[in-house]
Task: inverse folding
């Protein structure tokens, strides 16, 4: 134990935070543009599946397919919410269910015995997750696209009055959001598990969304949130690996079943503590 | 007002005055007006066609259930300070929004500086390209963005990769700010840290930054203190002198008289007359604006302060009927502090007393804490520090329902958001809040027959205009005036002791506003205490026995009727005067 245990915990935290941070950047993009995006969960699963399947042939194909699929499904979410005026939660939920069902079915059809890929180095994803938040801060604050994206997310009608159409920034934002989240998914299948299992996103999209709220819709804050939640994933894993036991009040608190809940319980606690203090982009809370 | 447009002269064959009276007297004359004058005017000016910055012809715009504009014509001379007036619902804003590309007209043509743009005016972006800028009433600056970002938005100077290049833009903004005499503008300030008046000036700056030569303003003074309004008009006049065309929409006749060169009057979505300001007067404009609804003695039924002075409508009459204010206070607010959800103090140690049979007006620039104070008295917001007493007993911690029970009633400021549930029926809306009372049946279940009976009585008493389908239609389908009648009737239904009225006439036409005033006045005579929150100073001055002024969350002063002049109130509202009677 001792130092080795601590190092393992730190490393594990970083790698657990990686997919959360990547997906959270997607969340920031979409939500700052005023589109609620609970489809992050589905996009992660999509990225995991597509990355694995196409990655079986070549890694490059896998990555390309992940980006394209993420953009396409992002486009779909943008189309449903913007053009078809669907409630973004309904659209997101629909996409999540669709992707969960489709990937489970396709996985059973295409590789019923499971399969294994060499994939990519996790460090690649980690680097991306470390750089992306800063890139996003710059984009949001210092570029025309970022300014318009924020304007549209705060008040589409005011933006329209200023002579810009809310459509383009929103479509772009939601598509990029899809790309970010599916890259997060690619990390899971291509760099972490080296295989695909159905529902392997396991709620990470929702936790990423929590990180966005935790970070007050700021890319760096959201990355911080991802680290925070990543820590509890790591802690839970480390406790299980080390077979640490805590029996209190007749409950085996370190049972794997309870430990599995830890990150999610912390998510809930963290959100409760920021609720009321976080100000979302104004257009998010508006019913259209 | 010695300014007279050089080339635009009203038709000699039919002066605007005649036009107006013709409309009132006969349908024939009215029809004549609708078809004839535009051609007439064109013919007359054939030799020296006037340069119109804006020319709109035969504009018709329908919304579901309403015709907002019907065959409306608007001609604004280049370089003029032009006013469009009319009551709420007369179609002024619609016309402006068509010109700015926000709405597309169903028919009609739009010309800017002689060039037809009807086909190319599909969005504000198109209007901006054509040199039109708009300062809107509701969709102003984006609060969370900085001044710089707001000004640049939509006209961003960018370098490689779409990165913003702000330096030159900032220099230009400071130049414009100097021209507009906006003192000490910090471009990196968030827009919502500016006062409403300053935000408006930034909006003008924003329009000029894009090279607007025609500026549209929709009710620009609706939420300003008198001094701020004055300063805005000075700024606009300077712009006009430099060649900008200014077109503003208002229902305040005094502004029109004091500042405009020419006036277009709209009534019920149609043209009612065109005037040159120097050749008309407020009474005539008013007559044209409200038309046949002025009463037989020629005295308009109008609750405007502008008219009060000349017509002697309010002041004396109402003062004479004032009941003796009884000794014990009805409502006592003691050093009440309210914090909003972000823990910011929005009401700071406010102290106020209200007697039985008294109307106390609460004035203030929009967002000075009036809404929060009203909601705290009602129990919608929690009082952090301080106490509230109703007839001597404390209600600070009572629930809203308990306060209703004890005789508090409420007219919310936004009847669409908090006053009604628009998709509920008239009956259901009228029942809301009373459903627990014994005379509504009480108990767990609601009692439709009782509800229906009560509602029918109310419809009769308040003369609510309702379709054949009766009180089961959704409240949404009623006009604003009729909706407000229901909101007011519901507040008065339980025979309250204290009425909290927030902007009770907002968005109402003159008739409906008068109804509200009558109801309030009647209620006060019966001993009700009324706390009147309003952004409309004229309204406050007319109805109130005393005027409390809020600034930055504090009640900075309480003025008697004698002290309460618009200038005095304005000085307190803007913080120019501080430290008055507050304990």
Result:
């Amino acid at each position: 134990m001792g130092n080795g245990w601590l190092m393992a915990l730190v490393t594990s935290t970083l790698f657990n935070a990686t997919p959360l941070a990547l997906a959270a950047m997607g969340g920031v993009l979409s939500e700052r543009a005023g589109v609620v995006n609970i489809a992050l969960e589905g996009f992660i699963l999509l990225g995991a599946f597509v990355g694995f399947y196409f990655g079986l042939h070549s890694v490059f194909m896998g990555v390309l397919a992940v980006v394209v699929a993420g953009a396409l499904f992002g486009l779909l979410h943008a189309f449903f919410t913007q053009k078809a005026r669907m409630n973004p939660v309904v659209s997101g939920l629909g996409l999540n269910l669709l992707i969960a069902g489709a990937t489970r079915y396709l996985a059973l059809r295409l590789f019923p015995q499971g399969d294994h890929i060499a994939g990519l180095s996790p460090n690649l994803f980690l680097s991306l997750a470390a750089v992306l938040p800063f890139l996003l801060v710059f984009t949001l604050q210092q570029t025309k696209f970022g300014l318009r994206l924020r304007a549209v997310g705060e008040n589409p009608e005011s933006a329209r009055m200023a002579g810009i159409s809310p459509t383009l920034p929103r479509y772009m934002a939601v598509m990029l959001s899809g790309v970010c989240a599916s890259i997060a998914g690619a990390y899971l299948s291509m760099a972490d598990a080296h295989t695909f299992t159905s529902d392997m996103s396991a709620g990470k999209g929702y936790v990423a969304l929590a990180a966005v709220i935790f970070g007050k819709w700021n890319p760096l804050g959201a990355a911080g949130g991802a680290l925070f939640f990543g820590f509890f994933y790591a802690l839970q894993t480390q406790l299980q690996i080390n077979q640490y036991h805590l029996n209190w009040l007749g409950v085996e608190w370190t049972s794997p079943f309870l430990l599995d809940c830890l990150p999610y319980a912390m998510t809930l606690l963290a959100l409760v503590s920021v609720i009321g203090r976080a100000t979302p982009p104004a257009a998010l809370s508006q019913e259209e | 007002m010695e300014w007279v447009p050089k080339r635009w002269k009203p038709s000699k064959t039919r002066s605007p005055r005649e036009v107006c009276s013709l409309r009132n007297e006969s349908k024939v004359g009215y029809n004549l007006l609708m078809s004839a004058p535009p051609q007439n005017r064109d013919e007359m000016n054939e030799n020296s066609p006037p340069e119109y910055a804006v020319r709109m012809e035969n504009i018709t715009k329908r919304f579901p259930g309403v015709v907002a504009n019907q065959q409306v014509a608007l001609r604004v001379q280049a370089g003029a300070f032009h006013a469009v007036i009319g009551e709420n619902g007369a179609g002024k804003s619609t016309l402006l929004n068509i010109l700015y590309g926000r709405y597309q007209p169903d028919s009609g043509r739009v010309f800017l500086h002689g060039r037809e743009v009807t086909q190319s005016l599909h969005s504000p972006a198109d209007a901006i390209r054509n040199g039109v800028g708009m300062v809107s009433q509701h969709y102003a600056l984006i609060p969370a963005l900085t001044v710089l970002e707001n000004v640049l938005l939509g006209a961003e100077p960018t370098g490689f990769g779409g990165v913003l290049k702000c330096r030159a833009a900032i220099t230009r903004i400071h130049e414009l700010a100097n021209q507009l005499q906006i003192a000490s503008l910090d471009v990196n300030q968030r827009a919502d840290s500016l006062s409403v008046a300053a935000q408006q000036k930034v909006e003008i700056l924003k329009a000029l930054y894009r090279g607007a030569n025609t500026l549209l303003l929709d009710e620009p003074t609706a939420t300003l203190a008198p001094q701020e309004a004055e300063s805005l008009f000075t700024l606009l006049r300077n712009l006009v002198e430099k060649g900008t065309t200014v077109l503003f929409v208002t229902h305040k006749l005094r502004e029109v008289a004091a500042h405009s060169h020419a006036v277009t009057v709209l009534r019920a979505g149609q043209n009612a007359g065109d005037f040159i300001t120097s050749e008309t007067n407020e009474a005539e404009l008013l007559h044209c604006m409200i038309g046949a609804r002025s009463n037989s003695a020629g005295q308009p039924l109008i609750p405007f302060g502008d008219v009060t002075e000349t017509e002697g409508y309010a002041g004396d009459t109402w003062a004479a009927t004032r009941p003796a204010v009884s000794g014990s206070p009805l409502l006592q607010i003691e050093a009440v502090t309210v914090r909003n959800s972000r823990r910011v103090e929005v009401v700071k140690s406010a102290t106020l007393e209200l007697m039985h049979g008294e109307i106390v007006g609460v004035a203030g620039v929009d967002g000075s804490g009036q809404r929060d104070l009203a909601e705290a008295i009602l129990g919608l917001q929690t009082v952090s520090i301080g106490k509230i007493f109703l007839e001597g007993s404390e209600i600070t911690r009572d629930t809203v329902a308990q306060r209703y029970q004890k005789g508090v009633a409420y007219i919310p400021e936004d009847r669409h958001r908090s006053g009604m549930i628009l998709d509920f029926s008239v009956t259901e809306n009228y029942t809301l809040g009373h459903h627990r009372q014994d005379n509504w049946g009480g108990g767990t279940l609601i009692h439709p027959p009782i509800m229906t009976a009560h509602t029918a009585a109310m419809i009769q008493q308040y003369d609510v205009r309702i379709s054949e389908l009766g009180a089961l239609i959704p409240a949404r389908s009623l006009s604003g005036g009729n909706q407000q009648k229901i909101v007011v009737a519901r507040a008065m239904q339980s025979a309250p002791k204290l009425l909290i009225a927030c902007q009770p006439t907002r968005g109402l036409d003159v008739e409906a506003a008068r109804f509200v005033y009558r109801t309030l006045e009647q209620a006060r005579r019966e001993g009700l205490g009324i706390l009147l929150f309003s952004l409309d100073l004229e309204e406050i001055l007319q109805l109130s026995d005393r005027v409390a002024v809020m600034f930055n969350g504090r009640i900075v002063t309480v003025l008697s009727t004698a002290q309460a002049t618009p200038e005095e109130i304005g000085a307190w509202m803007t913080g120019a005067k501080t430290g008055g009677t507050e304990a």
